[in-house]
Amino acid sequence: MSVKHKIAVVKVGGDVLLDDAERRGLALNIKQLVSLNWRVVVLHGGGPQTNRLQTKIGLKPNKVSGRRITSDKDLAVVKQAIAGEVNVDLTTALLQAGVNAFGFHGASGRMIEAVKRPPMHVSGVADGPVDFGEVGDVTGINHTLLGKLLDAGLTPVIATLGVAKDGRVFNINADTTVVKIAEALQADLLLLTTQVGAVFEDLSKPESRVKCITPQSAKTLIADGIIQGGMIPKVEEAVSLLDSGVGAIAIISGKNPQAFQSIVNSQGRFGTLIAKTDPLD
Fold first, then answer.
1. Helix (H, G, I), strand (E, B) or coil at 213
2. Where is the Aspartate/glutamate/uridylate kinase domain positioned along the sequence (predicted)?
3. How many other CB atoms are there within 10 angstroms of residue 149's CB atom?
4. Sheet harboring 169-171: ordered strands across?
5. CA-CA distance, 195 to 1, in Å (whole number)?
6. How far apart (Å, rounded) are the C-alpha atoms in residues 83 and 3?
7. Which residues are paired to 155 by β-bridges?
């Protein structure tokens, strides 16, 4: 009898990889999932590493409302930092933990197809539409190729770059891209790793962690101001994903090697689970 594999998609921010304990814990968590017969796809960014390399060579990071404007020179740095340093470091960390990791970038095999983002109005900017330069919006995921890599027993580790039909490469946002990957694979679980690792009613009080958010409770938490600022669109987008075939989403830190398994087993020990119903009730 063949073993049914569930699929988990893991988004890793560049800030997570700056901490050795976070990186080791993340690798061990992914190893745990693979050992439990989960198929895992990893997508990563690398904002801090890009900023560091830009500064080192005399370029100034340029952001509008938290979104990076990418010139031709900036794109060259993005390629070096994300597809180079970050992808290699994350892939080798997984290999050291015993995961058969396969690192590459989104332009490889047209894994992530994109088009140039048109100039757009940005809240807080009164000077008209902003041209973000060499930044792309995802138009498709090569889920066939991704499936073949998973069938081969590999854990894909993807640097968040996109490619146009004519081969032009774009810098793309990891948060929106990982959503497209989870949708394309109809993933059972989407894990969004952050250093904070959960939604808290009060960040200074670890005991105030919100263990689970449902579509209904999300509205209440937003109305009460517990979920606020940049976390509002993240939670709203996660809730909307539940209707597109993705089983559950969790905001979590990988620092504790048992964190991902706790989410899978609905133990509620780590992170914040976002699901249609609260399994802890």
1. strand
2. 6-252
3. 19
4. 136-141, 112-116, 161-163, 169-171
5. 40
6. 33
7. 101
Domains of the chain: 6-274 (3.40.1160.10)
How far apart CA 28 and CA 49 sit, in angstroms, is 23
Predicted TM-score of the model (pTM): 0.90
Q: Which residue did the predictor score with more confidence, 198 or 155?
A: 155
Q: Mark out the alpha helices in the chain (DSSP H runs).
A: 20-35, 47-56, 72-78, 87-96, 143-151, 174-185, 215-223, 231-241, 259-264
- Measured CA to CA in angstroms, residue 103 lies from 170, 204, 218, 219, 279 at distances of 18, 37, 35, 38, 34
Res. 172: pLDDT tops 60: yes
Residue 188: helix, strand or coil by DSSP? coil
Whose structure tokens read 């700056």? 18
Contacts of residue 139, defined as CB under 8 A and 6 or more positions apart, other chains included, come to 113, 114, 115
Among the residues of 104-258, which ranges form H helices?
Answer: 143-151, 174-185, 215-223, 231-241
For the four alpha carbons of 201, 277, 268 and 235, in that order, the dihedral sign comes to negative
d(CA 175, CA 204): 26
pLDDT tens across 86-112, in order?
Answer: 999 999 999 999 999 999 999 999 999
Instruction: State the Cα torsion 6-9-15-21 to the nearest 10°.
Output: 10
